[in-house]
Amino acid sequence: MAEGGKMAAGSSKMAAEAAVGQVVLPGDVLLLPARPEHDAERLPLGPEAAPRGRLLCGPGLRRCAAGLLVTKCGLLRHRQPGGGGGGAAAGGAYWVDSQQKRYVPVKGDQVIGIVTARAGDVFRLDVGGSEQASLSYLAFEGATKRNRPNVQVGDLIYGKFLVANKDMEPEMVCIDSSGKASGMGVIGQDGFLFKVSLGLIRKLLAPKCEIIQELSQLYPFELVLGMNGRIWVNGNPQEIVPGQQRQVLRAADWTGAK
User: Can you give the pTM of this predicted structure?
Assistant: First the structure.
């Protein structure tokens, strides 16, 4: 993008809905449909009216004056709000599905971090990015100055990014907007941690993922998926955990070949 918000020469523009499933390149601009917020005659009312959701901009995209600017090469994806229809004007999320090697923190992403150090009231976590993330001891459910969480160096933390941009240090929390853990916090001492590609993680987190459904029929287990490509799995007995890892990695080869 050139200075002053003008598009660089050679960049192409296309409708976002028409580009879903196609290859997009850095510099491409995705045009969004108009949303007539003040058209009272067209605004549906009543219990059957569809809610007007917010359009989310995911990895590989950023907002610009014309719509969405592509920053990574890959396939454009779109998810409808709640899995229903309604087009981009009804909300949902756009993102670029790319073969990115290193994880880049994104606000709201839930990841698995490894505690590497403690500096005062802040824990330092390795999240697989270019720099470590910080986590305050108050960012746990029920934590106070007197009641501090029991976190040690080497522990695994499942949390989400509260701050993630190129100008600030990534900051994580283990509570949601209501102050509840919602499954986040220190992961159990048992289990097994391994790493897969970022593309496979997105497939595993998709609704009604066949891989997860098939594994759940074979073994009883606990599974934590981090958007940074880390997977923690715990089963009983422990002997089945390596088997689950092999199943997931075999699924990675199968999905990559499709």
Answer: 0.71
